[in-house]
Amino acid sequence: MMFRDARREDVPTVVALLAADALGATRETAQGPLPEGYYRAFEAIERDPNNRLVVVEDGGVVLGCLQLTYIPGLSYQGGLRMLIEGVRVVESRRGEGVGRRMIQWAIEEARARGCRLVQLTTNKARTDAKRFYERLGFTASHEGMKLDLGTPPA
Questions:
Q1: Phi, psi for 113 (deg, rounded to 5)
Q2: What is the extent of the structural domain holding 85?
Q3: Residue 74 lies inside a defined structural domain of this protein
Q4: Contact (CB, 8 A) for 112 and 105
Q5: What is the pLDDT of residues 5-43, one digit of tens each?
Q6: How far is the C-alpha of 86 from the C-alpha of 65, rounded, in Å?
Q7: What total number of domains does the chain contain?
Q8: Strands (E) located in the chain
Q9: What is the pLDDT of residue 153?
Q10: pLDDT tens digits along 53-105
């Protein structure tokens, strides 16, 4: 398996991965031409040195994706933290350790960048994902909250 920064041509594949479950299907549009917002977001991620959209591939086939965001802050004595989001593995390869290797790779990237903490969120409906992250050493130490601001303009 090879980890690399996503390229513009990967955007449809990444969006399809994000849409490939019951929750993602309610908020992503993976059919037909993609809304331009996906490409604007990709370009913003690509320009930002504190963000990385990463794909993992095997034999030229994308198996999964994740986004890494580095957050500077005053807590932890000014320690940098990494936020992992948008973790997905193609359904046909789940259960083979791909996700575990992705998270372990991300943790090593955090260490290499000098992060003090790695954090992530997972929807409460994703009970399998919660168990997966707990097996990797993550703890549900905080209660996350979100406020949906509606659909952005096209």
A1: -90, -5
A2: 2-135
A3: yes
A4: no
A5: 999 999 999 999 999 988 888 888 888 899 999 999 999
A6: 7
A7: 1
A8: 2-5, 51-58, 61-71, 80-89, 115-120
A9: 61
A10: 999 999 999 999 999 999 999 999 999 999 999 999 999 999 999 999 999 99
